[in-house]
Fold this sequence. Notes:
Elements: H1 5-8, H2 18-21, H3 29-52, H4 62-78, H5 82-98, H6 103-126, E1 146-148, E2 151-153
Antiparallel strand pairs: 1-2
Amino acid sequence: MGLPAWFQMNGAVYKPAPELAEKKLRLHFIDRTLKGVAGLLEEFIFSEDHSQKPGLLQGLDARAKLLGVLLLVVCTSLLHSIPLIYGLYGLTLLLALLSRIEAAFFIKRVWLVLPLFAGLIALPATLNIFTPGETAMAIFSLDKDYHFGPYFVPA
């Protein structure tokens, strides 16, 4: 299969056919994959830029940073007080600011990923497939019970 003529020309810019120019086209799988990879590479390069800035955490040894993150995770897991958890979040925000990471960048990263991660962790506990109990709200119901090997799916 040969290359299209527009691809073979030096310095040529692809111009779609006039009937396609106004339409919103669905990207093919390869195009979407390449856009995703390019976005990921851009993200890695942008994050590398933050690690090269002079700041509090950038100067610490990687082992100390790992120990600090593990300590924050353990402390957050053991706390049962919402104000104290907010305090730990404030501490992480302060550390990010002292490391010269913009607050908007940090907050966007944390608050976009946090609900997805928490939702994935909490999802099995909300389904009666994994947790027996009385149904508070039925989203979907089956005609009968099903058994898949050791797994039981109630109606």
